[in-house]
Structure prediction request, 578 residues.
Amino acid sequence: MIRVWSWGALLTGLVIMVLPLVGMTEFSLRMRRGEYSFDAYTKVLADPAFQQTFGYSVIMALFTIAFGVLLVVPTAYWVRLKMPWARPYVEFITLLPLVIPAIVVVFGYIRLYNTSSWLPLTGTAMGTNVLLMFGYAMLALPYMYRSVDTGLRTIDIATLTEAAQSLGAGWITILARIILPNVLVAVLSGAFLTFAIVIGEFTMAALLNRPAFGPYLQVLGANRAYEPAALAVVSFAITWGCMGLIQLVTRLSKHTRAQS
Amino acid sequence: MPPRPDMPLPAPAAPAPVGPVPSTATRPSTAPRAPARRVLPWHWLGLLPFTIFALLFLILPTMKIVVGAFQTVDGTFTLENLRGLNTPSILSSYWVSIKLSVITAALGCAIGFAMAAAMILGRLPKGLRGPLLTFSGVASNFAGVPLAFAFIATLGPVGLVTIWLRTHMGIDLRAMGFNVLSFWGLVLTYLFFQIPLMILIITPAIDGLKREWREAAAILGASGWQYWRMVALPILFPSLLGTFALLFANSFGAVATAFALTGPQLNIVPIKLFAQIRGDVLGDPHLGYALAFGMIVITAIANTVYIVLRARSERWLK
Prediction:
């Protein structure tokens, strides 16, 4: 009896979660009348606007990841090593992006960094790109920090640091060659999640008027029928790929640790 | 390559790496230092890059909105902006937003909880757990514009389900008044990421229900229903309510999905704010601040509830 109810609950939920995926996949194949084809995919993937916006978002994602790693790894390391008392405060700040809606923060950016302010980032395209990158880093901060901090917990950073210091390593060497390799799995998990977030992000890019993938998708959706579904399938595949990679690196690291 | 004013390596902030180091109590003093020379606490400099980043790109922009909500155009203090929110159009947008968030959070909680409980306690094959959790991780991150497309392709006028229901079951969703671009369409769409989020958050809590509690209840003669009503649910209650608050905040601040689904027409707060930022549709920039301030207040309340209740529930689920 319990089993029947359980299957019922599970299947009901799965219907809501799986049907849209089936629907979008089926729809994306329907472009040619009367038969299934990949027309929508070939058409949209050949679209120069798609290539440009997608390329832009990928580059933004890579910069965001690089900046996030440079910001979060030393901070989390430093807090754990020297200022444990500050951890709750730092953690609280890293959770704030989940509390404050992104649209509010970007509204603040526009008002704070406009052309007549002390830091006119939105005045130039490059400046706006930088601002958007910081915005993305802010969005990804909760995930990145959590991931790296958990990774640091599993290694004995105090001993590692002292050992490295007694061998004459400076702080940069310690961070780059001791700490970073040891938390690489955590960093990669955070990086893949950041990638998934940045690729699909719409609000910030649209309001800062940058040619990113999210706004392009939205415009395409308002004007075409089958291509948006094809891109939705592509986006889902990217999200799935990122999550899969996170699982993969986590599993691989467990193996190496067990062997050593 | 963007310039990075706040290069985040704490190298310059570090005290000399050799010799007598930190004054923190983390290290036992194996070698007693002769003169107790107080080293100035330079440690905090290591936090400087992070602090600057958080200030510039998180705290100050938010403060700007909060302060702006209480200012007139020439900068004097006022409550007029907040009073300006009291128009039928804005109030109804808040009302629709709150309704949307409450409904999707409640349904998400109920369905997600049922699924998680079925997965853990329902005597289903063990192999289901891993894939379901992975799938939840993906689905909870699959929000925004593509999700809207998925629902249009499924429940839209020529969507898979719509056509199937019409040709095979003789049910015309349109004629029944259902439209994916409406409020209820939005509810269904939001459920797509609310349910998996609920599964991800509530699974550890259900895992934490100890078997002994159930056995103890059974020994005292409790039926399964009594066990749930008097033992399990009260223990899970803080988790459930806390997750509800989180799901509420999650859907309250969401812009992209709704915007891609319905365009700028649907009257909910995030979309109104979006239109206001783009084109000052309210005709008063400071009213925009007040609108955003209202959003902060509501999500802050929801998240505070979540954090407080989460701390309470962790007492049981060690």
Residues 89 and 212 of chain A are 33 Å apart (CA to CA). Chain A has one domain: 56-259.
